[in-house]
Amino acid sequence: MFNYSKREKLIKPSAIRELAKLIQDPEIISFAGGMPAPELFPLPEMALLSNHIITKNGGKALQYSATEGLVELRKIIAFRMKRFDVCCTEENILITNGSQQGLAFSGKLFIDEGDVIICENPSYIGALNAFRIFNPRIKGVSMDENGMRMDELEKTLQEYPNAKFIYTIPDFQNPTGVTLSPDRKQTMLKLSEQYQVPIIEDNPYLELNFNDDISYPIKSYDNTGNVIYLGSFSKTLCPGLRIGWIIAPKEVVRRYTLIKQSVDLHTNTLSQMEIVEYISRYNYDGHITEIKDLYRTRRNTMLKAMESEFPANVKWTKPKGGMFIWVTLEESVNATNIFNKALEEKVAFIPGDSFFPDGNVSNCFRLNYVTMDENRIVEGIKRLGQVLKKEVNE
Amino acid sequence: MFNYSKREKLIKPSAIRELAKLIQDPEIISFAGGMPAPELFPLPEMALLSNHIITKNGGKALQYSATEGLVELRKIIAFRMKRFDVCCTEENILITNGSQQGLAFSGKLFIDEGDVIICENPSYIGALNAFRIFNPRIKGVSMDENGMRMDELEKTLQEYPNAKFIYTIPDFQNPTGVTLSPDRKQTMLKLSEQYQVPIIEDNPYLELNFNDDISYPIKSYDNTGNVIYLGSFSKTLCPGLRIGWIIAPKEVVRRYTLIKQSVDLHTNTLSQMEIVEYISRYNYDGHITEIKDLYRTRRNTMLKAMESEFPANVKWTKPKGGMFIWVTLEESVNATNIFNKALEEKVAFIPGDSFFPDGNVSNCFRLNYVTMDENRIVEGIKRLGQVLKKEVNE
Fold this sequence. Notes:
The structure is a homodimer.
Chain A: H1 15-20, E1 29-30, H2 43-57, H3 71-81, E2 93-96, H4 98-110, E3 116-121, H5 125-132, E4 137-144, E5 147-148, H6 150-159, E6 166-168, H7 182-195, E7 199-202, E8 227-232, E9 244-247, H8 250-264, H9 269-281, H10 284-309, E10 315-316, E11 324-328, H11 335-344, E12 347-348, E13 350-351, E14 364-368, H12 374-391
Helix pairs in contact in A: 2-9, 4-5, 4-8, 6-7, 10-12
């Protein structure tokens, strides 16, 4: 009866969301999810916001609103981006349903069937799935401890000079936790300008820097309007409201806005006002500091436990921010087998293969260190260490 | 620098949203918008919901949630659809960001370039724009006072037996206000089964029936799973929360859900809970009765004013529900000219051409009777009548 479009075959379930169904037992110590720690959501404050908002704005708070997003929210975002040396005004900003929607729109705006796009190898599953529906050829560029390798990026651009964009998560990357060094950020921008291939910079973890310095996004070095920046409140306030944003040159924002108009008219009015009201009324920066303090402690606890519990031939990243540690086993070891063994011991993580555009690397996995308390982190890593010792030849 | 996809050229601004920018002067009596009357939004109740919700659910209210939507909300929708003789469970339902997202997903799921889709002539601009991005051939079928003409639909199906779907707004249609008669609803379903072309039934105004009878949707007659139904809380509660739903066979819902996952992960968690909490705690049916009482009064006022103020050679529909009246002038008269003259008199409406897939009818316009109070309706129609008398040859 139903005669679907050809693209229907390209729509794949997210491996993470499929695994999540296996991990619903609350006894499982889960390092699998991509969720922030809910105990830090500012519940008492959020509970009262809609009362303030509706008293102040009346029916406007529940009515249709502009496709671009509320001016007040866009102004706040423009102002907050200044500390990261990103210069923009509200006219450069479109509010989206989380930055996932920015990814989907980017695919729609740029990718024709067969086009090449370039990303880190590995990269964020949700982005790969958002792009795949447009049937691109995805070329992964290797990473080291300083992020995407620029020599390999240049080779890829030479080979595919018509690539549509470079997709990168430069700071505290999902899944590796690795940060692109400031030098490489500038090199990437130069290559982007030289080859006339724009950069889509996805930076949801930017503010979750555990050190005292500021991590400047690629967009901060951009003088030619080559970088499309995606931001989000999901990791610094809460993800359930689904509020993210795109920063781009006006002409590009106009095109994203027309897509948004045809797709869902506009983002939730009340929730946009909730973000404005929260930031105006409370100490948002203080709240982010609390998040960073908790996440830093949990990262330290996990790294320390891994140091003492994991076998010597296992390697992992040491993230300076964000939510994830990336573990690399010997090449002969299959992380999905380890996942199954670990699940018997009631510990979970995400096997790494689906983060690779080609799916051809099977000896890695991702750990989320932010959602479990310290005791569970220590216990979980201990159990995982035992599984690894049994399964990995030392 | 930016090398867009081919589909970028297909993304058109909504004529309504463009006109809206001309009509921002609050002195203008506007019958143009598609907005519900904000004075009926249940503000005191909505203001307190998030407090109740966060007390009850804690961090869960602000966390990521299931792509399908909250089970509680889907159960409420399934229960409420029973009174309209639509049998479904939560497994047949996907929650969307307003029914506009259901339209965009339908285009994505079904339309390949060049495919034929069938709709009413005229039809909802937002749907046409959501579909156009996939480059279909859109075939409009004429309407009369009982909705889409079934003889013409059958001819169209004979000519295009591979059409991907029939898109219809059967009850209190946007833009005409016309309702497809029960006979025709059943005929449309039979034709759909005979030609194996599914129906996408968009029914946001279903509950805004001003008479005492129930308007049964096409989905209520559907025993074979041929009808994909789109519903919304935008017109019965408020549009700002962007909560709509799709009802379809499980296998179809699964496909829509995978699209949703890749596009924006899930719908706003807190807002879904707000709808659940509102319906559980307050008298939603009583609220809908209030809306209908106000809209019925305003419809009556507008129809009466039109009767006394409009020239004799102007025709219009008499809607039994919903929000719109459709006005047809003599064929030689251009409604956009009338719009410009009316704007000088500070009255606005939407010229009808952009509601036609071919854009080839220029002597119609749409009036929204729900957002202006009775005094402004009377005054606006009087001014509009004067413009018409001057511009239309009697």
